[in-house]
Amino acid sequence: MVPPVSFESNRSSSFSDRRLNILANHFVTLNNSIDSNIFPSPTASSDSVFAHLLRAPEDPILGVTVAYNKDPSPVKLNLGVGAYRTEEGKPLVLNVVRRVEQQLVNEASRNKEYLPIVGVADFNKLSARLIFGADSPAIQENRVTTVQCLSGTGSLRVGGEFLARHYHQRTIYIPQPTWGNHPKIFTLAGLSVKTYRYYAPRTKGLDFQGLLEDLGSAPSGSVVLLHACAHNPTGVDPTPEQWEHIRQLIRSKALLPFFDSAYQGFASGSLDTDAQPVRTFVADGGELLVAQSYAKNMGLYGERVGALSIVCKSADVASRVESQVKLVVRPMYSNPPIHGASIVAAILRDRNLYNEWTIELKAMADRIINMRQKLFDALRSRGTPGDWSHIIKQIGMFTFTGLNAEQVSFMTKEYHIYMTFDGRISMAGLSSKTVPHLADAIHAAVTRAV
Ligand code: PGU
């Protein structure tokens, strides 16, 4: 066995040294698991130089779609990935997006030149206004730098790597549970990941006491990852009063908030209401980071459009921060793609298009809320044992059902319903037609003798 390299003992080493250590640890883990020499050389010239590779497991979320696609059943249902579907079960391109795309195609002056490292300038300005509010003092005082990144994931990764290079505390606290990609993103960015309590399985609600205790005992200066709204996977958000407690604790301990805003507009149906927690942290004058995604709220999943904003204490610091973020981006992917950001900028720039977007967004959020009620009613009418009120209490795209991995397996095998093993279902993947099938499956999973 090769001993893992100690990350903790390397506190004072350079960023690239620490990154190498982390990668070495990943490699050591893999290597120990296959119990062979590092990079065995091929014995014959016909052997592949990659012959030693193990097949990696599918991703716990995106792999659900892979399994779903292979299933020939006509009743199959994909409730794994958080992607909006219509009542007909089809992916949705918003009308406003289609219209803007037509306009962009017809604009003769448009070209395909490289963007600057920070992306489309107008997109960045308007994205900051969307999350912080048009009248935000931080924007007016030029204390915010916003950089277009590759959707939410890319924004988190760039932000994480910027912090690993330039911030004095390299520990980030993420909620337990959280979106499965968070720990991987931040570890590979060069941060050390720890968790804080968030969800209480017994109440299927927020473990507020646990959260306060864990953040209260985090070392001063630690980074804290917060879901801006519609927490994934639990669908449980703090109340405004609880947010205020969290804000005071974070500021009093000089922790650094890093918001992940992947669902603005999807929780309440209102872009402003969903941005409120972030805005209260900006209003107190403190510093923070926000990763924004337009995957869900504009349905631009595959266009990979998002933004990283860093709110600083002064315009001078913000501009120096931006210069350093550019050094993170340049060797990673050089500069971001044009198309998605041009669509977003066109919609955010024009009052009519913006209004049209908010109506379509609200319709998506309302359909999800409607599905919650329908599923709850269907389980009640079947007399399914248990209190299912969390289905209507939880917020956003997902319901954290409380079903265990064994029950999920049963539902997949017997009912062709695909979901993640933690019991999360994407309510956006349900329709009036498929609710009865899901309710039958849940009922059978909960009542069957094992
Ligand atoms: N942050 C959170 C909390 C998310 O749920 C997601 C997407 C992202 C960031 C990243 O989204 P981008 O597409 O990079 O903007 N989570 C979805 C989508 C599938 C996935 O895992 O990427 C999900 O089903 O959890």
UniProtKB/TrEMBL annotation:
Q: What class of enzyme is it?
A: transferase
Recorded catalytic reaction(s): these are: L-aspartate + 2-oxoglutarate = oxaloacetate + L-glutamate
Q: Name one GO biological process term.
A: amino acid metabolic process
Q: Does the keyword Transferase apply?
A: yes
Stretches assigned to the Aminotransferase class I/classII large domain:
76-442
Tell me which SUPFAM superfamilies the record gives.
PLP-dependent transferases
Q: Report a single Gene Ontology molecular function.
A: L-aspartate:2-oxoglutarate aminotransferase activity
Q: Name one GO cellular component term.
A: mitochondrion
Something else the entry says is: In eukaryotes there are cytoplasmic, mitochondrial and chloroplastic isozymes.
Q: Which UniProt keywords apply?
A: Aminotransferase, Pyridoxal phosphate, Transferase
Question: Recorded E.C. number(s)?
Answer: 2.6.1.1
Which family is it part of? Belongs to the class-I pyridoxal-phosphate-dependent aminotransferase family.
The species this protein belongs to is Lupinus luteus
Q: Which PANTHER family match?
A: ASPARTATE AMINOTRANSFERASE, ASPARTATE AMINOTRANSFERASE 3, CHLOROPLASTIC
Name of the protein this chain belongs to:
Aspartate aminotransferase
Transferase as a keyword?
yes
The role this protein plays is: Important for the metabolism of amino acids and Krebs-cycle related organic acids. In plants, it is involved in nitrogen metabolism and in aspects of carbon and energy metabolism.
